[in-house]
Amino acid sequence: MVDSKCQQHKDILLFQNGRALRFRFPVPIAADTLVRLVRYHWDDNRECRIEATLGQTGNLVDGTLRSYSFVLFPSHPSDNLDRYGRLIHAHWIDSSLFCRWKTDCDQHHQHCKPSSVILPALASIRPAWLVDIVRQCLVPAQLTDSYVCLSYVWGGTKQFTTAMDNLGRLQQPNALSFVPLAKTITHAMAVVEMAGEKFLWVDALCIVQDDDKQKHQDVQNMSGIYANATFTIIARSATNADSGLPGLFGISQQCKVQQHTWRLGPSSTVINIQHRDWKDDQNRGAWFTRGWTFQEELFSRRQLVLREHGPAHWTCMSAQWREDIRLPDITIQMPSPKRYPYQRSIYPEIHNVSPNIPKLAEIIENYNRRSFTLPEDSLRAFSGIATALLSSFQGGLISGLPADFFYAGLLWFPFSKDIVLRWPGGIPKASCVPSWSWAAWKGSLDLKIWRVADTWRPVGTNLRSWRGEQCFHERIFPIVEWSYHTTSDGPGIEIKDRFYALKEKYFDSDKTRCPPGWTRRPWTSSRGPNWVYNYHDESRSLRCLFHPIHLQGKGDSEVPGMTIAPWISCYTRSATLLAAEELIDWEPEYLAQCISLRDSIGTWAGFLTLNPDPLSPSETSDTVNLDLTGKSLTLVEVARGEIWEPTEVPFFHYFKDANHPERPKGVPWYQFYWVMWVEWRGDIAYRRGLGRVVKSIWEAQDRKKMHLMLG
């Protein structure tokens, strides 16, 4: 190209520096748009990437940085290219690729085998019913059946579903040919046939919608159903069940794919690859905003993604293949996860014997931004994820909070003012999603404090990391015993903080005999305990933990992944403090509303972070901006904590009391109580906020013993 005599090429090419070239933008643009210099380079797969800023003054267009990639189109069949462009139809997908992608993955990708990636808690899960696309009817699923899943959004008009009164009829051959199925489902059945498969699982047909017991079981098993599918069809552009899957010739509507080519002399061509489609779809499509589709993507180990404005592509544990890129008969590995931010990392990161609290927090933080038609589905849709977590969080989750460290699970915060109550009219009195659970609100969460419960953190990772700092510099102590209730007047079931009990018994101690399978050895370090623990049996091995953890044995009773409990109770103590000035952070537009607390004589006592009123109607997040100055607030103690002098540990500035001028200083450990602001409706209290109060000030208050029933 440097040697080209074409004036167009000279206008594009500006200079060459080694393997890097600088270009003007090689795609047709508006005549009055100025294109700044952009970087152009070849990678090892003969692919180049261009980043451009557009605008007369060199500013970003609409505040975005546009990124484009180009690949060579082969000029001769003998061209020796590792990866090259493929001309595709603007309206119709090459459906022969579906079967090829699946076959190539089956034959070449060891990391995509079910035995390599499916979590133990999910391996034996199978659906109850499947759609037989050959016989056009429902059939009972067999353990050996290979099936395809569909991930799509409902919405739109009410679609046809399976119910108790039509289940028998739908098992008759050709029964599905005579019912008004949603377009997305009928198109998915065609894709299954194109891929050489026979069975489809889709929730509308394969879950009997009015069989409450079986439906509850299917929802609990959702993660396993998707994980065990041979692949999942992702209807990424769909806005409702009748949107269909575009681009299937003779079956569905056209797709709209723009593919730009650029001639480089008489023998070479480059093709524009639109890598930005993923972000465009994420910002535009309903599929990315719905809560039910979150776990469907999370656990689908292989995905066939079909969309209206981009080429079809296949994503698995080992590769990403696109319709507009032709691959030879070799395996092309998936690029770095930073380049393609898909959630394939769920498998190695939660497939651990020991609980991965940071990963759980990350999953919840991302999940809680999703929307639901029914507010109570915010917990139901998380049940499948909870089932998958049983490999490590063996106590299960109680309304979204891990039972094994429930005392710390209650300490969640709204991160920003965009958080809103999922019930615009206020939480119903007997709601299955209670005020003490993060699932009652939609928006950004702050779950940093959960990491403090990770007291068993394995030694051997970088102790200077934030997890190491948190393990040694901040502590939480449970001070109340919680029970959960399925009815407000029924008996409570004790919630056992099993990991904290093991920490109390074994942390930094050689006085107590180790549990079966565990051994202890000395550990020398500048900070932390003097003893670490190892575990080994015929199937599991753990090294260098700070204390033993609970491991599920063969004789242990099975625990449900998610227990949905509307109420929890405890015996605790309460006191009142005064709401004072609002604490303003350097990011006030992002962080949740936070106020100071003072005692009756004006002494600064601590802080409180607020969430919207769960008892009052609220259409927007503006209800968080409350003026509570001077109001007496009833606070209940829920835990005790301490932190090494916060100003000496920069990471811990995430709480607004760290630099407060009136906070007690001059002692190694800053000690406090975790307190919850509650308000009552009858005998049931509801969470209004969470914060912490200086230990000496809280203990100086007139604290009253009480029985707390929290709804």
From TrEMBL:
Organism: Podospora anserina (strain S / ATCC MYA-4624 / DSM 980 / FGSC 10383) (Pleurage anserina)
Xref: Pfam families: HET
Taxon lineage: Eukaryota, Fungi, Dikarya, Ascomycota, Pezizomycotina
Protein name: Podospora anserina S mat+ genomic DNA chromosome 3, supercontig 2
PANTHER family: DOMAIN PROTEIN, PUTATIVE-RELATED, HETEROKARYON INCOMPATIBILITY DOMAIN-CONTAINING PROTEIN
InterPro entries: HET
Residue ranges annotated for the Heterokaryon incompatibility domain, each copy included: 147-296
